[in-house]
Amino acid sequence: MDASVVFPIYKPDKKILKKAVDAVKKQKFSGKFEVLLIDENAGFADQMNRGIKRAKYPFVVMLPQDCVPANDKWLENLVAPFKDKKVVAAVSRVKYPGYLWNSLNIFAKSLLIKEKGVLVSLLDGKGGAYRKSVMKDVGLFDDKNFLYAGEDFDTYMKIKDRGKIAYPNATILHIHPSSFRARLRKNYQYANAYGALVGIYGTKMHRWWLGIINALPIIGIASYILSYPFKKGLWLFPIFILTSVVNHPFYIKGFWKGLFDKKQTVR
User: Fold this and answer.
1) Beta carbons within 8 Å of 211's beta carbon, 6+ residues apart
2) Do residues 51 and 8 lie in contact, with contact meaning Cβ atoms separated by under 8 Å?
3) pTM for the predicted model, two decimal places
């Protein structure tokens, strides 16, 4: 089982990037692997596609510049499911480090509360592994309609019926310092991607109805507030209500723009 690990790079924090690359190079991996740094001033999906095209091994792992393997068995555990020929992709668990969480003010914490702890998405570009032959069959990542976000879920929609997606015990640390303002911008970007996905896939899109409900005035903000993950910290809920009032207009604007454009463009 040989793999290519691709780092799509754009104005990186050099210390974090070095930490990530060093951690990959120290992986205890039973097969052969290479590390490819793609730094060509292109969109995220575009850079990942360039990495896939240059990869010399059959399994390609995408590791953004701010993601660090949690231990030296990450790559082995992530790629292991591909022994089953029906597996087309494998998903890393994503953990937001506690020390970064503790460094945030309460307003930034309220916007990031859903990312606290460990997350496992249906298919995340952060630490995702792909069978290269399948990615080529579906035309790689859509770098025309998803410039800065949403390309991973678009890929999920394209490959979910081509085989199995594995969720092994493989964790990365998402070392991404943030702030209230930065998170508002990121949420705007995510909403834009969500809208684009619903615009492209319609009712086939996972939870398409929730995206539309959340993008409605009044009803939407109520729905958004009720999505609060109470198990992750009840004490932040009052702050979450306040910041949701600020965040919701960004969500509305981003979602409807993506829906009508059928394209993610917000940077």
Assistant:
1) 194, 195, 197, 198, 205, 255
2) yes
3) 0.92
Structure tokens at 167: 């969720």
* Closest-CA residue to 21 (of 37, 39, 32): 37
Whole-angstrom distance, CA of residue 77 vs CA of residue 170: 6
Q: What gap in Å lies between CA 139 and CA 205, rounded to an integer?
A: 19
For residue range 160-195, list pLDDT tens digits in order: 999 999 999 999 999 988 999 999 999 999 999 999
Rounded to the nearest angstrom, the gap between the alpha carbon of residue 133 and the centroid of all alpha carbons in its chain is 22
Instruction: Give the C-alpha separation, 103 to 175, whole Å.
Output: 12
Identify the structural domains of the chain with CATH numbers, from first to last: 1-178 (3.90.550.10), 179-267 (no CATH)
